[in-house]
Amino acid sequence: VLCCLLVAFLLTVNHSDQVSVQAENVTDILDEQNENVLEALKSESENILGLKNESYYELECDCGIGSIYCHYNTYGVKICDCRTDYAQNNDKCERCYCGWYATSCAFKYNKKVCTCPENYLLNDYYEKCVGQDPSIDRVAPVKHFC
Fold this sequence. Notes:
Keywords: Signal
Number of helices: 2
Shape: elongated
CATH topology of one domain: Laminin
Strand order of the largest sheet: 1-2
Oligomer: single chain
Number of strands: 8
């Protein structure tokens, strides 16, 4: 009986070594395939980005005096990052100020749009956000906008 157990033990050890060797070979093959795929993707992306493509050039990007940074998004649309009190109007940064109390200033269809916080009003004459008591700010009559 002891002899049978010893033979069975040796057979299982040999079989498990064989399985682990086969498993190592499979993982080596998979690792090699992954490396090949990654290398191909890297090469392709470098060509797309222009790192290896000699015909690649970067589009000139200028948003004017009030800009901090200019770039094109993935759709080719020009994006201007503008300084404080400036906003993008078409493809340039333009002065955009809606007063001390404004939460934002932007352009929509070439017209300045001011966003005022709750309890503040937009004064159309001065295009600024003012308190609800216009006499305090000494401005023309206000119109409810926000």
